[in-house]
Structure formats: C-alpha cells, structure tokens
Design brief:
- The chain is of the alpha+beta class.
- It is built from nine helices and six strands.
- The longest helix is centred in the middle third of the chain and has 20 residues.
- The chain is globular and about 50 Å long.
Length: 229
C-alpha cells in the first residue's frame, strides 16, 4: 500500500510505503527544530497519547525515546496503518500543547520520518542506537563513560529503563521481539541487553551508521531495500 497522496508523475515527495507487518524507525521533529516538550507535564501527556494511539490502531510499539525537540519510535504495523496512527498521535498532542501553552499553528516539522527496517538483521542494533540518544547529544556526549552510563540509567523518557530491568515498562511497549534478539536464557536477557546497549558508549557501530546514512529505502541489506523499492 502506498500512502501520501498526489500523482505519481511529478510528485513533490516520495510516497509512504505501508504494508502489513512492516517495521519502521519513526522520527518526529519540532518545527524549525524547536522544543515541543516544555516540562514533564508535556512529556507525560505525550506518553499517554502514545499509549492510546498504540491501542486504538493495533500497533506494536517496540520502543521509544523522547528528546526535547524530537522523538524516536521503533514499531510494527500489523494493519499497514502507519500514516493513520501517526496522524492521530501528532494531532492529539498538538491540540493539547497548543491549548496548554496558548499558541496556534504547526508544532511538528512537516512529515514524520519513517524508514522501513529489516527486523531480522537490524532490530537489536537499531534499538541500541535509539536508546543511546540521550547520552549522545549536548553536554552529556563529552562526559566520561561511567557518568554517561549513570545518566542513561536515570533517563526516564525512554523505554530503556524498562528493558534494562531498572523500572516498570509501560504496558503498551512490546518488548518480546527486541529481547528475543539477545541470545541468552530468558531470565538473564534484561541484564544482557543492558550490557549490550551500554557497550555502545565505548564503541560505535560503524556498519549500522553507514547503512542508516546511505539507505534511502530502508535499513537493511540490498535484498531488503530492493524489495521495498
């Protein structure tokens, strides 16, 4: 299914690729890179709206990470309804934010980003990349590894603490597919996943970064990208 509207000939933007069971890395950014979480009240409302949209549209949300001016989501759409899901989420939060902060107009930057993901090959690595976002930006990025580990474990606005066994995971997060990629016994998967993610603070996954940078059609091997194209 192709979503996005417009004529195929001479269209201004690439059509959205949607199909049953598709896995996406979704990014939402503030218009002109502006902050759209002013305080924890805003963040709590976004999480609430996210959970409601996940339930309403039957989406499997694998993980999330909220920054001040952008959000990462890793999710699967069994019903091929990514655009409808994202429209509901963004509209609901924008209406709330504009009313609370007495503003009008767009809050999010244009279209949300959505790259199809080859789940078999890249799901686990991409989950690490997303969960490490809070300690790869700003002043925290230059801190010693031990301090960045502490900051990561304390960061409350992502699904990492739940995956790492440090707090209770929101009920709308579907952890199974990501944890299944950790090749250890089920009872030790959370600690193993924590070690896997935090190892990324001392080493960069150059292969993943190259694939993400160069892959116009999705994150995966050539066969996967050919299929998406």
């Amino acid at each position: 299914v192709l979503g996005g509207g417009g004529s195929v000939w001479g269209m201004a933007r690439k059509l959205r690729v949607q199909y049953e069971g598709a896995i996406y890395h979704v990014t939402i950014r503030g218009v002109e890179q502006r902050v759209f979480f002013d305080d924890d009240g805003d963040r709590e409302r976004f999480v609430k709206r996210l959970g409601e949209a996940v339930e309403e549209y039957g989406v499997r949300l694998y993980l999330f990470c909220m920054m001040s001016n952008h959000v990462h989501l890793l999710l699967e759409t069994p019903q091929a309804n990514l655009s409808a899901f994202m429209q509901k989420l963004q509209t609901a939060y924008t209406v709330y934010y504009n009313l609370r902060h007495r503003r009008a107009g767009h809050l999010m930057q244009g279209r949300f980003g959505a790259k199809p993901i080859d789940g078999d090959s890249y799901l686990l690595k991409l989950s690490r990349y997303i969960h490490l976002n809070p300690v790869f930006v700003g002043s925290v990025a230059g801190k010693p590894v031990k301090e960045r580990v502490r900051k990561l474990r304390e960061y409350p606005w992502s699904s990492y603490r739940g995956y790492a066994g440090l707090s209770r995971q929101p009920g709308f997060v579907c952890e199974g597919p990501v944890l299944a990629g950790v090749a250890v016994a089920a009872k030790t998967r959370r600690s193993a996943y924590r070690r896997f993610v935090e190892a990324g603070l001392a080493e960069t996954d150059d292969e993943l970064l190259e694939v993400m940078r160069d892959s116009r059609w999705g994150v995966g091997e050539k066969e996967f990208q050919d299929r998406i194209r």
